[in-house]
Amino acid sequence: MKNLFTGAAIALVLTAGFTATTQAAVTLTEAEAKTLQFMHEEEKLAKDVYLTLYEKWNIRSFSNIASAEQRHQDQLKVLLDQYGVPSIIQSSEVGHFTNPDLAKMYNDLTTQGLASLEGALKVGGMIEELDILDLQKAIAESDKADVDSTYENLLRGSRNHLRAFAKQYSKNLGLTYQAQLMPAAEVNDIINSDQERGGHGG
């Protein structure tokens, strides 16, 4: 009887653990889960492009921001694990992507960025503008406080990265960075304002 009780108790604990895990996995809506998966791989896109461009142009901003993108990717992986959502990233190899749109973007952006320094710095700015737009959309669609908090943190980082690329654009080319995807007024407000604290390396 004692052994039976112990076995039943263990089974109950295991069942409770499984139920908790299952509940955690379904707390995100399907749309929220897919967005989180996409944002995780989009951070890899930014990192991989910057690493590739750093090898070509040896501008420290590319290396520093690539490291920050890895930290952002890690933060999103924590959320994926917390909610029991699998990552769609299948390989850490530079240039390898599961999402075909991101794979094409990597090829297109690196081609542009390797062609000229101006192209490289424009690519950096474009990626950060894209990140900002996608993060803003993700925040609007999510109602999870912890997810939104992480997205907000990444958003601060992306704004800081955009400031950094705009500064490098001016320093290396003597030109003023122009908005590529976002409204010009919004980009100008960002690049003409101070760096923000937070962003975990952003």
UniProtKB/TrEMBL annotation:
Residues 1-24 form the signal peptide. Residues 32-193 form the DUF2202 domain. The keyword Signal applies. It holds the Pfam family DUF2202. Keywords: Signal. Gene3D superfamilies: 1.20.1260.10. InterPro entries: DUF2202, Ferritin-like, Ferritin-like_SF. This is Ferritin. The lineage of its organism: Bacteria, Pseudomonadati, Pseudomonadota, Gammaproteobacteria, Thiotrichales.
